Every structure is written in C-alpha cells, then in structure tokens.
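for ur thesis appendix - BCCT family transporter. copy paste whatever u need, i formatted it the way the template wanted (i think)
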Amino acid sequence: MSNKKQEHTSKIDWPVFGLSGGLLVLFVIAAFWNIDAVKTFVNSGFAWSSKYFGAFWQVLMLLHFLVGLYIAFSRYGNVRLGFLEKPELSTFKWLSIIMATLLAGGGVFWAAAEPMYHFLTVPPMHEGIDAKSQAAIMPALAQSYMHWGFLAWAILGTLSAVVMMYGHYHKGMPMKPRTLLYPIFGEKLNNNILGTLVDAFSIIAVAAGTIGPIGFLGLQASYGLSALFGLPDAFSTQLAIIIALVIVTTISAVTGLHKGIQALSNFNVRLAIGLIFFVLLFGPGGFIIDSFVSSFGFYAENFISISTFRGDTGWLGSWTVFFWGWFIGYGPMMAILVSRISRGRTIRQIIMAVAIIAPLVTTFWFTVVGGSGIFYELQNAGSVSEQLNNGGMPAAMIAITEQLPLASIISPLFLLLTIIFVITTGDSMSYTIAMAVSGEGNPKVSLRVFWSILMGSIAAILLFIGEGSIGSLQSFIVVTAVPVSILLLPMLWLAPKVSNELLHEQGLNKD
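the 3d part is after this line
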C-alpha cells in the first residue's frame, strides 16, 4: 500500500494549484478593477445560494450530526483508523489543534458580538419575547449555541474524516478532498477533471473562509490597539498587523504540526482557559454559570425547531445560512486536518471530540464572553450596545473587557488571544491546503509558505481596497459552499458504508 500511496502523493497537482490560486487572485484583480461590480456579483450569488440551498444546508447539517452520533455510539465506533495502535498526539494536544483551528475562524469575533446582537434584537423564531429583557437572555445565547454548537462542528471532520481516513490510510489514496468520493468512483479520481474540480473548489472555499478572519483581525486588532494604547486606527496599522501575522503563521506552518502549530494551539487553549477562570472568579461568574445552564437547556429543548426554522428567509440569509455556508466550506479541509492528526484513534473518539466536546467548550466560551456583555448591558444600558452599534464587532470585545477588573491587563490579553486564534487558523489551513495540493501528510515547505503568504496578501489588499471588500469576500464564502455541500452530501451514507467494511476487516462485527 505504501508504494501505491507514494505514487499518488509525490508531486504537486499543478491543475489544482493553478485553478484554486488563480481564481483567488482573479477575485482580487476584479475587486481592484471594479469593486462595485464584484459586490453586485457576490450579492446576487449570495441571494441565489441562500434561496436555493438554504433549506438543503439546514437539513444537511442536522443529518451530519445525527448520523455521526449513530456511527459513534454503534459498533462502528470501535473501529480504529490509520493502522496505529497508539495515537501520535496526546488527547490535550489533539483537542487543542481541533479547537484552535475553527474558533480562530471567527469564534473570538462572534463570541462577543453575536449574543449581544440577538439580545438587542430577538431572533424571529422567538416571537413574544421583549428585547433587552431578562427573558431575552436564553434565546440570545441559545441562538449563538445553535450557530456555533453541535451542527456547526459536526460538518467539520466527523463523517468526512471517517471517509478521508478510510481512503487515505486504508486504500492508499492521496490526502486530498477528492478522496471523499473514493468509495463511489475509485482510483480513477486521481486522473480526471472531477477530482481536479473537487480539490480546487474545496481549497477556494476554505481559503476565502480563512482570508476573511485574517482581514477582520486587522480591523479588530487595529481598533483594539487604538482603544487601548492610542495607536492610529488606520490602514498602516492594519497592514503592520497582517504582516506580523503572516510572518508568525508562516514560521508556524513551516515548522509543522508537531512544533509550531501544536505549540501555538496549546498556548492559545491554555490562555483561553486562564481568561475563562479569571472572568468566572472576578467577573459576573454566577450570572455566566446560571445563564449557561438555563440557555443550554433552552437550546436542547428547542434543538430541532431552531435548527429547522424557515419562517424568515431574510434573517436566515444574514445569520444561519451565512454561517452554514462558512462551515460547509471548511468541511473538506477540516476533514483532511482531522485525518492527519487523528491516526490511531477510533471513530467514536473522533466524533466525540469534534461533534460533542468541541461544541460544549465553544458554547461555554460564548457564554463567558457574550454572557458578560449581556450582564453589563443589563447593569448599564448602552455600555456595550452603543460601542457595538457604532464600532461593529471589533468594538464589542473591548467594550466588554474594559468593564472587567484589571482591564488594563485583561483587555490586551483578550486581544492577544484573538490574534493567536487567527494565527492558528492561518497556519493550520496553510498546512492543510498544501496537503490538498500535494496529497501528502507532510507537504513541501515551499507550498506551506506560498499559501500562508497568499492568504495574508489577499487580506491586506482587500483591506487596502476598502469599501466592504472583506465583507464581499465573506459573502463569497456562501457561494463557494454550494459545490462543497454537494460533495459532503454523500458522506451521509458513505461514512456508515466504509465503517461497516472496516468493522468486518478488523473482526469487530462479532457479538
């Protein structure tokens, strides 16, 4: 098997490299040439995607979670993937990479802002509840849990990771998105146009989903440095931040999974845990605990109805469909990343980590940050909402942390956490895209450097263009998610199919 595998993975896939990198560069050139035309195109594509794929995505996300639970807690859960008896990474290091990669994609930006938005304007499925009231707390947090909880995580490396690890480790296919379709098309995927298109569109979707947060980091960090230290909140500051980020991201990606990426992820998770304990001990800890318990109960009780709500398509397009497009776009690449770091683990361990543990940690994190914002807003109306309305998401976190004890220390630490979270997404995705282009678990350093610099450069260019170009890229994510969602649909039956095959191969089907 190893010889066969090496044959598939020893070369850069130039058609995939050219198509994915070329289209991303073309997006930037078009934005330079006529940003208004790009906005019109993206907004039309966004509206079309939301109209014709919104309901499909909601069902797809829900089914991924339910089928994942079935596989994890059936006999299939005992199947060990990757021909290793002992995992390469410790459980903490493994979970740190998984958590840091996606939360960096927006969890810090949205953890402060989204619960506040829903508190100030109650989501349409919760009619009859007054905004800015005690009764609005549970719906606000529960809606945030739905967007960043079980369904969001289940699409990232559960069913798709099972199929990817089966195809790569057990059948010798390259570590590329096309391997997700191996159970249907077999090895002919290695040399046909379908495989090229699958890889290219998966790379474009995740690159867009990573460039957006890098750009937003420039905005948020620039705002934060201005508010905390008086630095100018201008493009020069944003550019300096992105250059520094690209340098660190590149170094981390070059040193690989077992050094830079792992070290940054570990540090970030430990810093987040430290900040959580500080807020619980010296901030509104009782309010946070009470709100988490009650809101999570509300979320669980209304899980299906919130997940399948279709009553206000305009609101859904701005919130749920946008998030679902973003996470679906990450799906194939997260499957590759999870597959790379999960060799030797069982199906149950992988699905439990991604679809249960990660969402629980994420929802509590949202309660700590966003719940604190709601608490301070209740105590002093306008203390968070005014800055949120005037300065947008970058202002929300600063408005919240400045009301905590030792704000002069805690606010910069939250800003540092934000920066490192985005770095961990950048380095992990640079590494993962390089894997997708080469098909191997340890891609060439030059490939990792190229993608790290390309994504940072595009973010900087879009910030320079201004006029909402970063926002246009974020909306473009939803458009790129359309073909990726079609790729992920077969995972609903392919994951149980390959799990059953491996169950028999490993002799685990006996009672």
